[in-house]
Amino acid sequence: MPTDAALGALEALAGVETLYTYPLTNTGTLGTAFGHTAPLTGWAATFLPKSATAIGTLEGGVTPGLAFITEQQLGKGKIVLLGALPEGDEGAVLLAAMFRHYAAEAGVTLALDTSPGTIAIPRADETGLFWVVVNMDGHGGTVTLPGPAVDLLNREQFPAGALELAVYGWRVIRMV
Q1: Which residue, of 53, 73, 105, is where some domain finishes?
Q2: How does pLDDT run across 51-83, given as a tens digit for each residue?
């Protein structure tokens, strides 16, 4: 257990001081970040940025104005602290905006959106990038193709848009 700070050495590395930790569930506390606002749930850590930048702030509740998302430059990367979990549909939108933001900053140029329970794993061979897409939850799923694609195993062609996967189905696809 850290005795010098709530998050121990991580606080100094991340450029924050953790002021409070407490449960947010059913308190009506909202978090705003990346142009979105969502209710927050779970056990929270609220931050006072020292050298970090506050990216998401709390609204309402007992600590309005404190940060629940911070970022700190470290070498060529960043430490991003998420101190509370956005919940519900609004929370999913906020988290997706956060991931898109940092993926864009990292230079990610191609990503595939999948339904819950479906994964898309990028792979490369001597001819380029391809994706292994697998439904893992037994409910079937979809992957959204950003452009035309081909299944490398059976040469089936797919247009841009949603590609349905059977229960536990899988495809090996390449964008064309």
Answers
A1: 105
A2: 999 999 999 999 999 999 999 999 999 999 999
Number of domains in the chain: 2
**Alpha carbons 75 and 64: distance in angstroms, whole number:** 31
**pLDDT (tens digit, 9 = 90+) per residue, 106-117?**
888 777 889 999
Pull the structure tokens for residue 113: 């959106």
Closest of 18, 141, 13, 25 to residue 80, by C-alpha: 13
Burial of 29 (0-12, 13-18, 19+ CB in 10 A): buried
- Give me the domain span that covers residue 38: 9-105
Q: Are residues 94 and 119 in the same domain?
A: no
User: H/E element holding 49?
Assistant: strand 43-49
- Is 65 exposed, middle or buried, given 0-12, 13-18 or 19+ CB atoms closer than 10 A? exposed
DSSP 8: T
Nearest to 100 by CA among 108, 35, 38: 108
Q: Tell me the CATH number at 91.
A: 3.40.50.880
